[in-house]
Structure formats: C-alpha cells, structure tokens
Design a protein that fits this description.
The chain is an alpha+beta fold. The chain has three domains: 7-76 and 396-404, Uridine Diphospho-n-acetylenolpyruvylglucosamine Reductase, domain 2 (2-Layer Sandwich); 81-200, Uridine Diphospho-n-acetylenolpyruvylglucosamine Reductase, domain 3, CATH 3.30.465; 203-368, 3-Layer(aba) Sandwich (Vanillyl-alcohol Oxidase, Chain A, domain 3), CATH 3.40.462. The chain is built from twelve helices and 21 strands. It has an eight-stranded antiparallel β-sheet with strand order 16-13-15-14-18-19-17-20, with helices on both faces. Strands 6-7-11-9-10 form a five-stranded antiparallel β-sheet. The mean pLDDT is 90.
C-alpha cells in the first residue's frame, strides 16, 4: 500500500511495532521533516485513510484508535532542538525530541522544563503535549498547556500552520496551539513547540515515610502541608512502590514521599514544617537523587492491567482513608496536591471501585479494562458538542484518529 504521493514507499517502516490491541495499521510512515508529515496527511485525506499519530508510544499502548486505523504516522524522527534562548528562558524543539533529551540539554545551563511523563527516555514532547500529561509536580509547576507559548502543526489537509509565539511577549492571536493540548492526536499533528522554562532550584529534597492506612487517615498530620509550597506529596501502595530506587523504599504498606524544590533557606524552613507534622523520615534524598525519584514516581503511573486515572478537589491524603484497608490499595499512586489518583485494581472490582470513588468526590478521566460505569455528571459530556465543532474545523475530513481509552 502507498499513499497518492508515493511517500508511503519512501518513508515506510514495519507496521508490527505500531499495533494497538488487536489492530495493526495497513501502513506505517516515519516522516523526516515537517513538510513530509504534512504531505502524508494531505495524501491520507485524499485516499480517505484514518491516521494515528505516534511519538514514543508510552501513552498509546493501552488505547485504541477512535476512528479506524489505516496509517501509523511516527513523528519521533523530528527530534531536533531548533532554538534555545537561556537568557529568555525559552526553547523551541521538534515534537519527536524526548523529555530526557530536553532535560539533559537544559540541565547543562541550570534550567529545566517541568514536563513529566512515564518513561521520559521514550516519551516525546509532542506526545506529552497531545495528552496534556503531567506527573507528581502538576499543581506546583502546571500542566503542559501552561508552559506552551506557541506551536507549528499540520492540519489533516496538509496545511502547515502556526499559533502563538516563541517568547512570552510575542504570543498573540487565537491560542489554537492550546487546543491541541489534551487532544490525543485528534485535531492536528504537533510538529514543533515553543515552551517556557524555569531555573533549576538551588535545593532539592525528598522525604520518604512508611505509613499504615490508619496513619494516612489522621487528618491532623496533614493540616500544615497545604500551606507550604511543596513540589509534590505522593502516596503509593507497596506494590506500586516496588519500582522506586532502593534508596527510597521502606518496608511499610504505604509510602508517602514529600518533595521540596526551593532556594536553600525556604527549603530548610519547609523541611522543618514537614518533619514537625509527619515526624522524622525513614529516608532523605537530595540533589540528583530527587530528580531520579521524581521520574520513578511518574513511571509508577504506567503499570500493566486495568487502570483508573481520577481527578479530585481533595488535595491531601486523607481523602484516600476509606479505601486503604483493601488489598487492591497496594497498586495505587496518589499525587495529593495535584488531585490525581492512578489505580491498578483487579478487573473484577473496577466498576464497583469507580462507583465508590465517585461517591467520595473522585471523577474518572481515564479508564481501561472492564469498566461498565459511566459518570453521569462527567464534565466530558458537557464539552462534547464544542469539541466536535473544533474537530470539524481542524479536521473536516475526519482523517485523524485520536487515542481512545
């Protein structure tokens, strides 16, 4: 099979690496430039083929395409850093650049891009933006959409377009680039992006605690923490914590990890408050060890089997108290200040668990496995007509087949 332009022959790669569930595309392409990606989309529209956009595949692995699956378009070959302005704290990179590559480049200049994803060595910038995905530091540093200044993208008819700018003062016009965040590849192909950076903090500290379920349920111990500027407070069941570095593992039913990233004086002051509230930690990490631990916390969001990702206005671990006495709690990961709960229970209890969590104020935003329950007041239902209008405007031919959980 080849597209009308013949690009399918020039950039075709083996299709078996792009299977989604039981589905395998008829053709897989790996464009070498933005222009080739746009031309392939134009040809797919002409041939009425459904296209799934790929990066590192870290989040696609447990999804299915929403509109069919004829062509896998792998954008990971577009991996160059195009412009880096340390003085302006901005960077422009192609969508196929991995998060680990960006982190290494920025670390050399004492800067960072606070985007987090499981398997950062494979996760691409484009995929992270397309999912608007983030890890334990989401509340402190924002989601990808909060860091995005502008983007270049290809519409499904092959049109190359730009929105936003490369520095904060040049951002103007309709923020179409922000609509692409969270679209899961269903509106346009993100080809390059400009983002805001941060200086690396003077001090990074992580305090690791082992706790039992009743300790997490004591509301008084958490009262101080929301008033601080912590980078993260993550609760993990023992099974979910098994992949953490040896230096941060403790023998307890649950791990609580508190992260602090600040100037030295304020970091020390916050650490005093945390220790006063929670006691002396079982382990204390500093510097690069905290960077590695933070990535491990993000990696723990991506486990095998049925999964639930839920959001909540609850911002401290007490919200989990009613659920911690059950066996499946060993596979949960809760980034408390971000209000994000990731849970990997046995399939036979998923539906009942979603109902219980709904009653406790959690809303499912991602589900896989045998989940029969649909949230009757899900915010997704309210925005569906608007989403459909936007999708028709950006992808009128219905070429792009977004990931569907």
């Amino acid at each position: 099979m080849s597209l009308a332009t013949g690009l399918g022959r020039e950039r075709a790669v083996t299709t078996d690496a792009y299977r989604l569930g039981h589905l395998e595309p008829r053709l897989a392409l790996k464009p070498a430039s933005a222009e080739e990606a746009a031309e392939a989309l134009r040809a797919a529209a002409q041939d009425q083929l459904a296209v799934v956009l790929w990066g590192g595949g870290t989040r696609l692995e447990r999804t299915l395409p929403a509109r069919g699956y004829d062509v896998a378009m792998d954008l990971s070959g577009l991996d160059r850093i195009l412009e880096y302005e340390p003085e302006d704290l901005t960077i422009t990179a192609q969508c196929g650049a991995t998060l680990s590559t960006l982190a290494t480049t920025l670390r050399a200049r004492g800067q960072e891009l606070p985007l987090e994803s499981p398997h950062a060595d494979r996760a691409t910038l484009g995929g992270t933006l397309a999912w608007n995905g983030s890890g334990p530091r989401r509340r402190r540093f924002g989601a990808p959409v909060d860091r995005l200044l502008g983007a270049r993208f290809a519409l499904s008819d092959g049109t190359l377009a730009r929105a936003g700018g490369k520095v904060v003062k040049n951002v103007a016009g309709h923020p179409v680039h922000r609509l692409l965040c969270g679209s899961r590849g269903g509106l346009a192909a993100i080809l390059e992006a400009s983002l805001k950076l941060l200086p690396s903090p003077e001090t990074r500290v992580a305090l690791v605690y082992g706790m039992k379920d009743w300790e997490i349920g004591e509301a008084t111990r958490w009262k101080t923490l929301p008033r601080l500027e912590l980078s993260f407070t993550t609760v993990m069941g023992s099974a979910a914590a098994s992949g953490l570095p040896e230096s941060s593992r403790v023998d307890a039913p649950f791990l609580v990890v508190v992260g602090i990233e600040e100037d030295r004086a304020w970091a020390a002051e916050q650490e005093k408050h945390v220790v006063a509230a929670l006691g002396a930690p079982a382990a204390r990490l500093e510097g690069d060890a905290v960077v590695g631990l933070t990535q491990s916390l993000a990696d723990a969001e991506h486990q095998t089997g049925a999964h639930l990702t839920l959001t909540s206005a609850h911002l401290d671990p007490v919200a989990l108290a009613p659920f911690l006495g059950r066996g499946e709690a060993s596979r949960l990961v809760y980034h408390a200040p971000a209000g994000r709960l990731h849970w990997y229970p046995d399939e036979e209890v998923v539906t009942s668990l979603v109902l219980e969590l709904h009653q406790a104020g959690f809303r499912a935003i991602e589900k896989s496995g045998k989940v029969a329950f649909q949230d009757p007041i899900s915010p997704q239902a309210a925005i569906t007509p608007l989403r459909e209008r936007i999708q028709r405007a950006l992808d009128p031919a219905g070429v792009l087949s977004p990931a569907q959980l």
